TrEMBL record:
Catalyzes the 2-thiolation of uridine at the wobble position (U34) of tRNA, leading to the formation of s(2)U34. The keyword Methyltransferase applies. HAMAP family: tRNA_thiouridyl_MnmA (MF_00144). This is tRNA-specific 2-thiouridylase MnmA. ATP binds at A7, M8, S9, G10, G11, I12, D13, S14, F33, G113. Keywords: ATP-binding, Cytoplasm, Disulfide bond, Methyltransferase, Nucleotide-binding, RNA-binding, Transferase, tRNA processing, tRNA-binding. The gene is trmU1.
Amino acid sequence: MEKVLLAMSGGIDSSVAAYLLREKGMAVEGVFFILFDEPANIELAKQTANFLNIKLHIEDLREKFKADVITPFFEGYKKGITPNPCVICNKKIKFPLLKFLAEKVKANYIATGHYARIVRINNIPLLMKGIDPKKDQSYFLYGIERTLLSHIIFPLGEYTKYKIREIAEKVGIPSKVAEESTEVCFLRDKRYYESIRPTKGGPIIEMSTGKIIGQHRGIHLYTIGQRKRLGIASPHPLYVVKIEPSENAVYVDSKEKAFMREFVVNELNWLCDIEKEEFSCQVKIRYAMNPEKATVTLINKDRANVVFEKPQFAPTPGQSAVFYNGDIVLGGGVIKEIMQGF
């Protein structure tokens, strides 16, 4: 019997994943990662493990999570960028630790409750989108080690969220009552800027005229494409189009100025072989968007230039650009620099 170690959050997705793996005849053990104080759903994770008669390991990763995810998250905002903590957590915490613990418990595979798929083509494992377009989470997974793909199972990738809820109800899994996890788990119900100490204010500048039209209370309060909380009276809507830490300035203008075609990414990670230095693909620059056509040109092994066929709204430094060929995730990187053209 093959053994799999599953990350269990106590939520409905990972709990049903445990059930599905067990139904396939696999020996399942779960692990709950304590990432911050008072973690939600830990008791539900224990109840679900007892209900499914699987062993649950508890791993306290608070120090590592703070160092690798929480601190860089807040420091990023202070520098005028918008980090993606889920991508960083998967890359630096969740999957490396699952691999390490799987070796300790002699598990053949690791698994999570992500809506994504591992599909073998010509016996090569590829990361692919989940079949539910509303829940596909492949965007958050591009940063994992390619060598892990042959050891990962995503049990939910072939299901819709509706079907997973249906299974939880039918089986009576305790975690069906769990709250949905939020994108930034460690913030709970807070806004990110409520957890950052006030920093030095500076000018809000209208990009097209160069005029100072207001004062901000810290660049950490802003992200590219933002419209709310500007505190400026204007006859037309204004959007953040640029954040310049060296000037401690926030630039705003009309919505059309927030649409951009070209940017540079770094920290590249590839999940399949890339044979050309320039190639066409589809690119997502945020989770909740459809992939759009673009040309990617490799600058070196760690940097690439991306040019969208059509301008896209608010490419944002710190966020991830993920490259797709249809359903296949090719890889991706972190947006570093925007070529704004004005």
